Amino acid sequence: MPPAKHEPGRDPEMANRTQTLNLVFALSSLGMLVVFSLMIWADYDREWKTYQSTFNRLDVKYTEQQIQEALGKVDAARRQGVQAELQQGDKEIAARRADIGKAQAEVEKAHGIWYGLDQEYRFTKANIDVQRYVYDEAAHRNEKSAPRKKTDLEALEKHWTDLRVKVEEAKANEDAAKSRVAELEATKLDAEKKQKELFAERDRLEEKLQKIRPNWVYFVRNLPILDLANPSLKINQIMPGNLIDDVNFTGTPKVDRCTTCHLAIDKKGYENAPQPFRTHPDFETFLRGPHPIEKVGCTACHQGRGRATGFQNAAHTPSTREQEKEWGKYTHSKEYQELRFWDLQMMARGHTESQCLKCHSGVVEVPKAEHLNTGTLLIEKYGCFGCHKIKGWEGLRKVGPDLTRVVTKTNPEWIVRWIKEPRGFRPTRMPQIWDVRLDETAGQKARNDTEASAVAAYVVEKSAKDAYPDPPRGDLPAGRKIFESVGCLACHRVGDDRRGIVGLEAAAFREHGPNLAGTGSKVKAGWLYAWVRNPKGYWHDTKMPNLRLSEKEAADVTAYLMSLKNEAFLARPRPAFDQSLRDEIVLEYLKAQFTVKQAGERLAAMGDQERTLFLGEKTIGRYGCFGCHTVTGFEKSSPVGVELTEEGSKLVERLDFGFEEGRIANTLPAWVQRKLMEPRAFDHGKVKRPDELLRMPKFHFAPEEADAIVTGVMSFTKEQVPLAAQKQLSADEKYIEKGRRLVRNLNCQGCHQIGAKGGTIKAVVTDQLESSGGDVLQAVALSPPMLYNEQSRSGEGARVQTPWLHGFLKDPSNKIRPWLQIHMPTFDFEEEEVNAITRYFAALDSVPYPYEPKPKLDPVLVATGKDLFGRWQCVRCHVVAGKLPNQEPANMAPDLAKVPERLRTAWIAQWLADPGRIQTGTRMPANFPTDPSENAYPDILGGDQKKQIEAVRSYLLTLGSPGTRVAEAH
Fold first, then answer.
1. Looking at beta carbons, which pairs linking 199-202 to residues 24 or more positions away fall under 8 Å?
2. Of 720, 714, 721, 719, nearest to 647 (Cα)?
3. What CATH number is given for 370-389+640-718 in this structure?
4. Tens digit of each residue's pLDDT (9 = 90 or more) over 575-626
5. Which CATH architecture has domain 729-845?
6. 859-956, superfamily in CATH?
7. For 182-219, what is each residue's pLDDT tens digit?
């Protein structure tokens, strides 16, 4: 092939380089196009768009179902009737077509006339405005033409007035013509109206369906780049007022985008839809009502990262290890990892209530937060604040008994066995300190026995050695009857007795005091007798009230309780005490304070008893026994556990999962749950010195107890909510909370029902009636009264006068129902406590405090009331002036002579009108029927029930009250 000829002025190499450059440019352009396309797609393809597209399909499907349901609700007969009317209307229109056409022509003609006159009317009005301005200017300048212009204006105004009459006449003619058309088409128009009303719900849903059903417009507006204009797939966000996020120590306005994916969270009808398309539970309370979503948002309660629009970036927290594995399927690493470096991880399912206290501060219980309320109650009952500092809980009394005089109560042999294994004796909240590790060795068990023996020796040595005389001889059966009837079972259980216990909170009421199984093997009879007579005589801070038992009754109760033995427990071998091991442990403690040589010298200088007491003291200090008990020598000791004030905000990175990592979810709630169930599990498999080992005792929590306590612990958070966003308590609400605290501390709900809670003693009374063959319906009459009824919104505050309640709380020996054995005990209230309780009940019912005006009574009404009182034979049940009727206790009612000083005037009328509404299950008859025509005495006061009630009330207010003023009749 001949060589190519070179054209003059052309460089062949340049041409080759140009072609290569063109090829490179083309390939790089294609590469850039691909990369640019991928970049656009990566920006467009967001996780939340998939959720919104999925929800759109779900919403369409759900709306179609609603349409069918709406059609199904339409009565078939009505639908057929409307169709028949429509067909009849069509026939009538066809028959009257000529008349209708003529009438419609008249309508059009009348409308044309009206339209022309209306236009002229409006233009004339505009000309009047112009002419008025012209005249005003001429008059202002004193022009000669002013009078003529005024005449023109007046003529124009008269023409405008005449036009108005003509417009109104034309409109009336048009309306008359339309009425004639409507009369001719009346049947069809009426049928169409009925049809519209009948299918209104279907039409609304079909209109909605047209808007949400995907079509080509939906497709185009959501395309990449084009979605900049007006997409239907878009981020939703809420900006609640007064709430902020702490980002790098800077407060930034809270923005929640949770509804971008949780699209049905505020829509009814999706309660059973899959997540994230499910309706929020208790919709009215948490998304409307007191917590409107537009003001509260989502992360204020759920935490998490509100500005995120992705599942992992939102800081979702798995509830279990299994859920963590399940979520891992949707991540690249196949293992779900929490959003690191975000302090406020989303609350795991079941613990959301823990966030309520941020806004509802200063309350004993948060409404609708039963899990949280139970958790904080259990934290209080188990005394967690004794070992762990919790801000705001510093003033609470230690939960365990005073040990400074324990030897006067029990004996050293029982003490050492009890300390070693409390639950071996009976059910108790006392935790187990020793022999609770998952990998307990023989050497560790020997150390445990030695430490427990040393603690018992220290407590015994430091205890006062007072002695109580032997009690009088008691009658055991009588004592048992007194114990089971006077009210002891409201706070105490014996063994496995679970009457009245439904749920954790009810259990807390009946476990307010210790389980009394085995009492005879624990305490000395002389001490028990003195304790039953006067609990505060032994321990001033005890919560046990004085039941005002006589010497005989106290002796009988003592005899019964001393019969409750657990001989098997006392027969157990005493924990072994190894002196050489004791010396080794003592030397360990000494080496921590002194040099090795000094430690050896000090140990050698100690006597045998001194070494034992030294070990006991150090062991008590290590395990923090003084957190629950007053122990001599530890009056000023600090808590041994970590502070829990901000435990709910602790970062997961600060937790030591030990070898439990991978076995439980990598979350704070899971860690706390494991810590509660197996407090020393995180030591398992590790090599530690004895002083490095975990020391939290085992409480043997039930899983549901631990779960509730986790919620309580998670409520201890460092997150601060601005004051403007918090629930502010009114003056009455503050009194209510103060009283509610006392009610909880004293376990009033063990006997009394307040709202939906408490009154567990009624279950005991019911059981006693059932076992004795009695009428269980009498349980209400034989139980302490309900102190607040949520249904009637009425309680003790509305029922009794404050001065009477004040006096009764100070001295409840003046019984309301003296024939009952169960009675209100004496609590030895301070004046401040009595005032708090009385004001609590008054505020709860919004009644005057402390006094209400005395009523002025009409003697005529009083006489009429006395007549009705006799006709109803009220004295068959009620005590009057202290005279007991000859009735069974369950059928007897309070002394009516105390009505004027005890009951509030307004409440008496409410009670007489409908007793069952105020006191569910009362045996008080409803003497005033709902239907006034059924009134038993229509001849009295014209059968007017309100006047009859007022008459009876007036009479009751005169009983036993000589100071009550009766007005003279007019």
1. 199/70, 199/71, 199/74, 201/70, 201/73, 202/67, 202/70, 202/71, 202/74
2. 714
3. 1.10.760
4. 999 999 999 999 999 999 999 999 999 999 999 999 999 999 999 999 999 9
5. Orthogonal Bundle (1.10)
6. Cytochrome c-like domain (1.10.760.10)
7. 887 788 788 788 888 888 888 888 888 888 888 888 88
